[in-house]
Specification:
Blueprint (H helix, E strand, L loop, with lengths): L1 H15 L8 H27 L1 H9 L1 E8 L6 E2 L5 E14 L6 H12 L11 H10 L1 H8 L10 H13 L8 H14 L6 E5 L5 H9 L7 E10 L7 H4 L14 H6 L12 H5 L1 H4 L4 E8 L4 E8 L6 E4 L3 H16 L7 E7 L6 E9 L6 E3 L3 H4 L9 H11 L9 E3 L2 E3 L2 E3 L11 E3 L1 H7 L2 H11 L15 H13 L27 H6 L8 H12 L3 E3 L4 E7 L5 E7 L4 E4 L4 H16 L18 E11 L2 E12 L6 E10 L6 H16 L15 H6 L3
Parallel strand pairs: 2-8
Antiparallel strand pairs: 1-6, 2-3, 3-4, 3-5, 6-7, 8-17, 9-10, 9-22, 10-11, 12-15, 13-14, 16-19, 17-18, 20-21, 21-22
Helix pairs in contact: 4-8, 5-7, 5-8, 14-23, 16-18, 16-19, 16-22, 17-22
Organism: Levilactobacillus acidifarinae DSM 19394 = JCM 15949
Protein name: Cell division protein FtsI
Main location: membrane
Length: about 700
């Protein structure tokens, strides 16, 4: 039996043959795939390392170069004698320079640390800024999210917005005083751009705050102790309305100009001139920012800082205005308006050099007749349109001479009542017609004859006057008169280097208003600015050259010790046009203006001005006006001195006075001239300063 089993076992072993591997084919296939993938990976690594290794190494090591800028001190503004009108007051400040890719959580931590040592105003903190600060703390955000149903189904951004909306509607949400302080700091930091600097607190930083922050600067990346500047007015603020304003760091760039200014290199929180000279000369005053080249590595760390340019303070403006005289002029104007009666709405005065257009003083006061409140407004001289009255008659006579309706040899007319279809208009001294007298052009100016001017207007329009007949005169009369007025600066912009100047105000020129063409001839229709009146009289005084007024005399640099530096450019007189009048025609007009003050006619209108020394030539103006249904008078004056060698022009306007105040313009003029000769220019510099006492002396230089 044993042998049987041995034989069977031997046969089974012989039938199986040699021993074979038992690993399945599929497993072998997987091994092959894995081997191929390893080979591909090794090949790709070799490709990247050998072929492009240098390139990728450069990418890893590359740096991004950015320019960091820092603001500089704004240029100052000086008067004609070098006195500071607008300066810069330095303040210790706390600033923050935002790094590259700084996280909001980082700024949150810095704001909380800084808040321990610095107290800021939270008056402008908005509810949204408070919530953003609160939710930047991840624990606070998580706590709020728990109160919102199904919050996990939203994305991170949606969850934040849900939390934001939740707190906006939560009446119980409120920050503590400490949190508000930190939230304001956080809001200012968040508003900064990468590598830009913003002020956290730009004034009233205490010594204790400076000391404590200085000790902990290393704990607050980007925080630095800095300096800020604000405008100050060491010689008073009467000139401020002309100078204009500068935006603060808080208000930043004006919203209507932000894109334009950003393109010019400004940052959103930069200060910029907002109005008048500060805006007009922004490119001069702003200076050039300091520049630092910052290299940022691929991991957003700053690897190198190089100072490229230290910055340059803005250049300075030197004005034509004499600050001492300006202060006196403003006081005189304010005093005159304070003493005005009736429904007076303001007083305005301009003092300028007729030969250069340099404005020496410019003052104005507005008045609210209902309350009597006075408001300084020097800009009223360029943007308040006023019906000036007879002050324009010098231009009317000049136009008539240029048109040829009168000549230096033939210019006598009869002052009579002008009767147009039963409507009568007359001169102030001849209302009834009983004083009909023959007047020539100089006398017409001396006595301020309305009748003479109306007759000139009709002659210019080619209309033959007949007493009592209708005024069938062409409406061209308006354009003819205005054309001559415009040549002297009345009814057009003067070209002064201040924005916002008015062109004046024209009345209707329609056929139904044809009678107003006669009113226009003696100044009782169109409205002009005080600056236009000053330019008109300057054109007469200098012999017929209309020059643009200017308040900027020069642009100057700064010395090493911070004082007014060398002249970089000067403002030269800008001639706008010349008057096409002969020497004889100019002489005739100047004779009349001289006689207004120094003539012998009983009806001369400027007798009160005769006491002014050196002697002046002038034209007074009185317009019949109305204020809210009440009868008033508007007084004006255009004058120059000395009559024989004009050095200064004084023009003023006083709208809507009581009829009992009809000499206020001359009282104010006397005070202004006295202040001018005492403060601005000594009469000792004049040739024969008191000699201008005869019409002949004016005539000798009229050409």
């Amino acid at each position: 039996m044993k042998n049987f089993y041995n034989r069977v076992s031997n046969r089974n072993r012989q039938s199986r043959g040699p021993q074979k591997s038992s690993i399945p084919f599929r497993l072998n296939f997987l091994f092959i795939i894995v081997a191929l993938l390893f080979a591909a990976l090794i090949g790709q690594l070799a490709y990247l390392q050998v072929i492009h290794g240098a390139q990728f190494k450069a990418v890893v090591n590359q740096t991004d170069t950015t320019i960091e800028t820092t603001n500089v001190q704004r240029g100052m503004i000086y008067d004609s004698n070098g006195k500071v009108l607008v300066g810069n007051q330095a303040h210790q400040a706390i600033a923050y320079t935002k790094g590259v890719n700084v996280l909001s959580t980082d700024m949150y931590s810095i704001a909380n640390r800084l808040g321990k040592y610095l107290t800021v105003s939270t008056g402008t903190l908005t509810p949204r800024q408070s919530i953003d600060y609160y939710l930047t703390n991840t624990k606070n955000l998580a706590a709020v999210e728990k109160k919102i149903p199904n919050i996990k189904q939203y994305s991170a951004t949606e969850r934040y917005n849900k939390a934001l909306s939740y707190l906006e509607n939560d009446s119980g949400f409120k920050l503590t005083a400490t949190q508000k302080n930190a939230a304001e700091i956080f809001a200012k930091m968040s508003g900064a751009y990468a590598l830009s600097t913003t002020y956290i607190k730009d004034s009233n930083v205490s010594s204790q705050e400076i000391a404590q922050i200085g000790e902990h600067l290393s704990e607050m990346p980007g925080i630095k102790v800095s300096t800020s500047w604000s405008r100050n007015y060491p010689n008073g603020e009467s000139i401020k309305s002309i100078i204009g304003t500068v935006s603060s760091e808080k208000t930043g760039l004006p919203s209507d100009e932000i894109n334009q200014l950003l393109a010019q290199g400004y940052s959103r929180n930069d200060s910029v001139g907002q109005s008048y000279l500060e805006k007009e000369y922004e490119s001069v005053l702003r200076g050039t920012k300091a520049e630092k080249q910052v290299e940022v590595a691929g991991n957003n760390t700053i690897t190198k800082e190089v100072k490229k340019y230290g910055g340059q303070k803005g250049d300075n403006l030197q004005l034509t205005i004499n600050s001492t005289f300006q202060s006196q002029l403003q006081k005189l104007v304010r005093s005159a308006e304070s003493n005005a009666g009736g429904y007076s709405t303001g007083t305005y005065a301009v003092v300028m050099n007729p030969n250069t257009g340099a404005v020496i003083g410019i003052a104005g006061v507005d008045r609210d007749p209902s309350t009597g409140k006075l408001t300084e407004n020097a800009l009223g001289t360029i943007n308040s349109d006023i019906v000036m009255g007879s002050v324009v008659k010098g231009a009317m006579v000049s136009g008539a001479l240029m048109s040829g309706v009168i000549t230096p040899e033939n210019n006598t007319l009869t002052d009579e009542v002008i009767n147009i279809g039963g409507v009568k208009k007359s001169s102030w001294f001849n209302h009834s017609g009983s004083a009909n007298i023959s007047v020539d052009a100089p006398t017409a100016l001396e006595v301020s004859s309305n009748s003479y001017m109306m007759q000139l207007a009709m002659k210019e329009a080619g209309f033959k006057y007949s007493a009592g007949a209708a005024l069938n005169m062409s409406t061209k009369a308006f354009s003819i008169e205005r054309g001559y007025f415009n040549q002297f600066g009345l009814g057009v912009k003067t070209g002064i280097d201040l924005p916002g100047e008015s062109t004046g105000l024209e009345g209707s020129s329609s056929r139904t208003n044809i009678g107003s063409a006669l009113d226009l001839s003696f100044g009782n229709y169109d409205a002009y600015t005080t600056m236009q009146v000053a330019q008109y009289m300057s054109t007469v005084a200098n012999g017929g050259t209309r020059i643009a007024p200017h308040v900027v005399q020069a642009i100057r640099g700064t010395t090493s010790d911070g004082k007014l530096g060398t002249v970089k450019s000067t403002v030269t007189p800008k001639v706008l046009n010349t008057i096409d009048m002969t020497a004889a025609q100019k002489k005739l007009v100047k004779e009349g203006l001289y006689d207004v003050v120094h003539g012998t006619n009983t009806y001369k209108t400027g007798a009160e001005l005769a006491s002014i020394s050196p002697g002046i030539s002038a034209k007074t103006g009185t317009a019949e006006t109305y204020y809210k249904g009440h009868s008033t008078v508007t007084l004006s004056l255009a004058s120059y001195a000395p009559s024989n060698d004009p050095q200064v022009v004084v023009a003023l306007a006083m709208p809507n006075l009581s009829t009992s105040d009809e000499d206020n313009n001359m009282k104010l003029a006397k005070q202004i001239y006295a202040a001018y000769w005492k403060t601005v220019q000594s009469t000792s510099t004049l040739t024969n300063p008191t000699k201008a006492t005869t019409a002949g002396s004016a005539q000798n230089t009229a050409g």
